[in-house]
Structures are given as C-alpha cells and as structure tokens.
Design a protein that fits this description.
Number of helices: 5
Order of helices and strands: HHHHH
Shape: globular
Distance between the termini: 28 Å
Structural class: mainly alpha
C-alpha cells in the first residue's frame, strides 16, 4: 500500500500537467514560447510548473509568487523527504 501511495504522489502532478497541456493548449502556448520549458518542468518540478501555469495568464504579481514558491517547496521536499530517515544517528 505504501508503494502505491508513493507512486501516486510522484506521478500525480506529472499526469495532471500532461492532461492539462493536452486539454488547454492555448494557455500553455501563451505561457511558454517553446516546447522544452514545460517538458523540463514536468520532469523535474511538476508542482512548480502547475502553479506557474495557473497564475501566469494575468502576469505573476503579488500573492502569485506565494503559489509558485509553495510548489517549489513541495517539489524540493519530494526530492529530499527520505534523507532524514536514512541517517544512522
């Protein structure tokens, strides 16, 4: 059961980003000028990418930065979350 939850946490935002990209291509093309930035975002920082695409159409101002930083914290936490349990002392 633990492995299933881990797989869903890792794949969930990536699948959501791909589906959103396929369903609302106009938003993605106005947000990004090339294909590579969304692809890199889906692979390495999916929560940050989702937050950026959600707030970018009106321009990133004010509290929009809070959502982007929150996405970055979640992404970085998912990469370093298990390091505390791996310590011996």
């Amino acid at each position: 059961m633990c492995c299933l939850i881990t797989i869903m946490v890792l794949l969930g935002p990536r699948i959501a980003a791909i589906l959103w990209w396929l369903m609302d291509t106009d938003r993605w093309t106005t947000t990004f000028s090339s294909f590579w930035w969304p692809l890199i975002g889906i692979v390495f920082l999916p929560w940050t990418l989702l937050a950026y695409v959600a707030v970018s159409p009106g321009g990133v101002t004010g509290l929009d930065w809070l959502w982007i930083i929150l996405g970055l914290i979640i992404d970085l936490g998912s990469y370093s979350g298990g390091s505390r349990k791996k310590r011996w002392f």
